[in-house]
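Table 4 source record.
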Amino acid sequence: MNLFSRYIITLYLKYFFILFVSLECFFVLIDLVKYLDELPQSANLIVLLIFYDFVYASNYILPLSLVLAQIVLVISMLRNSQFTAFLALGYSKLRIFLPIFMVSFLITLLFVLLNATPFAYAKERVDLIIERGYLGSYKNDLFIKYNDNYIYFEKVFPLLKTAENVKVYEVFNKQVIKIIEAPRAVFIQDKWRLENAKITTLDSNLEIGKNPLKIEEQKTYETLQGFKPKILDNIYEKQGSVSIVDALEAIWLLKEQGVNTQKLRSSLYSLIFFPFFAPLVMVCLARFTPNSNRYANMSGITLGMILGVLIVWGVFFSFSRLSMSGFLLPEVSIILPIGILGLVSLWLFLRLFKE
């Protein structure tokens, strides 16, 4: 990396971190004011609440900070004539902006990878602390179909990977052939281990004088291979968060069961494609950056860039929300707009390359 690239990247990252931290603190402060009457009594939980709220806010703040940092950098360089001086020294617009594009793309890619980890469940942790005053979660009274089994969970604890009062109905040829009941179940090594299980086997051939029920007890009974507890959370949580990995697994499972996966697909596309809004918009802004501040209205340019970015971001965000609500197909409301923006950015990038 040459001296010029290091200089541009250092300036860009300085403005990015200032904007990112400032906007994050503002977001968290507003949330703390909103939850003021519901804050937990424990200082540890308040610290965790602030941390998770900070992480959750990054979903909205990070893309905007990446773009706004470029606007601030460009305006600053134009005002002190640095941008014009670089152009006079033979640097093209592409060479000036390329280090910034690369840094923003790498930051966005890292953020997308983080969404494949428990990082994506920050909003869920915030809601748990506010609503229940502790960091744990459970779902109750769930009855679902998985392959040829019907399962009832009185309580499921996705974070602990445990369940209470579980009943599994194994079905063959539309008839129940076996009922497994257990007061407790644990998800271990990609399967559910039912503890102190009571197994009732029903004989399909009924004969007079013969007991059709066979009841036995086992200390442990393993079943439901691959049915992860977090999938239950994703299926039944109307506004819950989901990571990329869990969304892919849940979509695969629900497709096998013939269940609509629109909400999960919307969440998945938002996690993967929506963050790339920032580097794509940055390419568009670079193309329309003036060469000098002498004949340009700097206040108007600054206002126009900021308003344009906020409007485009608002449109993309609205489309993603409409998709998650089931009003629009995620392929139309998320992938198509990002695809159009990507094509426009590619065309403008090629224009910069030719210049």
